[in-house]
Amino acid sequence: MGEPVSYEIRKLLQERKLLQIKPDRKLVTKEIKGAEYDLSRAMESLSNSTEVVNDAQKFLDAAKQLLRFR
Asked: What is the rounded CA–CA span in Å between residue 24 and residue 53?
């Protein structure tokens, strides 16, 4: 069984800003790869702002959470 949905994701679902779909491994893998790329780019530019890294980490965590929904 997957982990409980975070408050942020639950709020986005309620506001219909995020749609809940059946996870497709190919789609989730693509999203995780994109999030990992974004995180690596953010870490490279860490001297500019730590907020960028935090945002990228949130996207990566959300993508990984989708895998646990299966």
From this structure: 27
Q: Looking at the domain assignment, is residue 53 inside a domain? A: yes
Average pLDDT, the chain: 80
CA distance 40 to 46: 10
**Left (φ > 0), alpha (ψ -120 to 50) or beta: where does 16 sit?**
left
* pLDDT tens track for 4-21: 778 888 898 899 888 888
Q: Which domain holds residue 64?
A: 21-68
In terms of phi and psi (left: phi > 0; alpha: psi -120 to 50; beta: otherwise), the region of 24 is beta
How many domains does the chain fold into? 1
Residue 11 lies in a domain: no
